Amino acid sequence: MTHVFHSDTPPANAGGDGERFTIEVNGEAVAACEGQTVAAALIATGHRMFGHTPSGAPRGIFCGMGVCFDCLVTVDGLADQRACVTPVRPGMQVQTTPAREWYDGRD
Ligand code: FES
């Protein structure tokens, strides 16, 4: 499934009339725009859950400014990247963290 936005409705935090392209999120093409962060592209296309706590609670955007680390995703194979401060690039591959993927036994 491909998420798209209408040409007359730029995504949140679009950063102006930048180039439009797609990124891949969990293997799915997602519309993005130059000047957006990964978090903005995800939120603009309906993605709200970026990861989970060790107990399985879903996490997403909280501070939106790089402080809380609640928005960690894997970007082009690099784990634990803050989606809210990582700019999108054409062809970028993003993976959200499924529940308990990194569970270490402490709860
Ligand atoms: S939402 Fe807080 S660091 Fe990204």
Looking at how many chains there are and whether they match, the oligomeric state comes to: single chain
Low-pLDDT stretches are 3-14
Please, what is the average pLDDT?
A: 83
CATH top level label: Alpha Beta
The portion of residues assigned to helices is: under 10%
Bound compounds, please? FE2/S2 (inorganic) cluster
Q: Give the helices and strands as they follow along the chain.
A: EEHEEEEE
Beta content comes to 25-35%
Radius of gyration, whole Å:
14 Å
CATH architecture: Roll
Q: What's the total helix number?
A: 1
What CATH calls the topology is Ubiquitin-like (UB roll)
The fourth-level CATH homologous superfamily is 2Fe-2S iron-sulphur cluster binding domain, sarcosine oxidase, alpha subunit, N-terminal domain
The structural domain count equals: 1
Shape: globular
Find the structural class using helix and strand composition.
mainly beta
- The side-by-side strand order for the widest beta sheet comes to 2-1-7-5-6
Determine the N-to-C terminus distance.
35 Å
Number of E-state strands: 7
Instruction: Please give the largest β-sheet.
Output: 5 strands, mixed
